[in-house]
Amino acid sequence: MQIDPAKQERVDNYKLLVGSILPRPIAFVTSVAEDGTVNASPFSFFTVVSTDPPMISVSVGRKPGGVQKDTARNIAHAKEFVIQVVDGENVEQVNQTATEFPPDVSEVEAVGMDLLSSVKVKVPRIAQSKVQMECRLHEILPIGGDGSSPNTDLIIGEVVFFHVQDDLYDQGRILTEKLDPVGRLAGTTFSTIGETFSMPRLSPEEWKEKYGQS
C-alpha cells in the first residue's frame, strides 16, 4: 500500500499517524487562564526534546478555523505550565478532562482532582499524579495549516522542577513498573507497558563478534 498524504483528507492522515506512531506517552497538562481558571487537558503528541537543559514538547492541535485551544492560549499568555504523567491509577480521571468543558470551567474541579502548589511556577500541579514536571515556556510555534490558519501549536518547554513520588525513585532512576505509565494507541484505545525486554547497545567490536560474518 502506497499513500500520498497530499491526496487525502486531514482526518485520513491523522488516522495513519496515530495508528503507526504508538504507543504514545500522554502529557497531562495544567495551565492557568487569565481569569485564574486552572485548565487541565491530556495530549498524546508529546516527547523529550533535550536533556541539557531538560526540555519537552507538546503539540496542541487547533480547533476548526485555526482557533487555539485553552491550553495553548493559556501557556502563550502565562509562559509556564506543568506536565503530569498519566498512569493506571489516574487515567480514567485524565480521560474525563478531555471533555469539551467551557473555558471558565476548571476540568480539575469537574472531575474531582486536587491541586498542589508548585515550587518554581505559579501553575498548580495535580495531586493524583506520581510524576510532575514544572515547565517554563521556551517557544511556541504555530505550524501546519495554510499559514493564515495553523493546524497546531508546537509548545517547547524547559523543565525547571521535578516532583517524583518517593517509592518510584531509586538511585536517580524512576521505577517503571511502580509508575505504571499509560500510553495512547489509535482511536479510544490505551495501553499499559505490558511485557518488557532489554537489549544492550553494542560496541562495533561486540556487534562484529555477535552478528558479523566470519
TrEMBL record:
SMART domains: Flavin_Reduct. Keywords: Flavoprotein, FMN. One of its GO terms (molecular function) is oxidoreductase activity, acting on the CH-NH group of donors, NAD or NADP as acceptor. It comes from the Bacteria. Its cofactor is FMN. Residues 19-176 form the Flavin reductase like domain. Belongs to the flavoredoxin family. This is NADH-FMN oxidoreductase RutF, flavin reductase (DIM6/NTAB) family.
